[in-house]
Amino acid sequence: MTQDELVNHLKSIADDYWQSKKTPIFLSQLVPTLIARAGNADFRVALGTQTLKSFIKSTSEMGRYRLIEHPTQIAKVALAPIDAEFEFSQSGTTEGVSNAIPTQRRPNKAIALLDILSTLPDEEIQKITIPISVLVKLSRQ
Fold first, then answer.
1. DSSP letter string over the chain?
2. Whole-angstrom Cα distance, residue 18 to residue 105?
3. Over 50: is that where the pLDDT of 92 sits?
4. HEC per residue, 10-23
């Protein structure tokens, strides 16, 4: 599939979906729709090194479609015709989402030890005995 063919498919999908649902199509729904519409043609060839999202952004003017991104939820991304009036609402966007800064997870030393031991040959592993109290202490650190 060429880039022009991909642009045409994206345009027609955005238009058709908007006409039938009056809402943009999410990228998660776009990929299966694109695969079904393209048949045997692989759209990833036309993308080259770009992601679908970056391809849509860079070809939006030529394709007469636009990428709509949610202001706070990174995963909410949709495709709509360029003249479609739609914006994600900001109300209720933080529902169920913690505003706390995530703590950085420390590596579990017990798991790290087991990962190291798993690289040893079977004969050497059979000779190793580690008391449970040691693994528990490592997991607490």
1. --HHHHHHHHHHHHHHHHHHHSSPEEHHHHHHHHHHHHTT--HHHHHTTS-HHHHHHHHHHHHTEEEEE-SS-TT-EEEEETT-------TTTTTT---SPPPPPPPPHHHHHHHHHTTS-HHHHHH----HHHHHHHHH-
2. 43
3. no
4. HHHHHHHHHHHHCC
Mean pLDDT, range 37-65, rounded to an integer: 87
Q: How long a stretch of residues is the chain? A: 141
**Whether 14 contacts 25, CB under 8 Å:** yes
- Cα separation, 35 vs 52, in Å, equals 13
pTM: 0.60
Mean pLDDT of 33-37: 87
Phi, psi of 77 (to 5 degrees): -135, 135
More confident residue, 98 or 85: 85
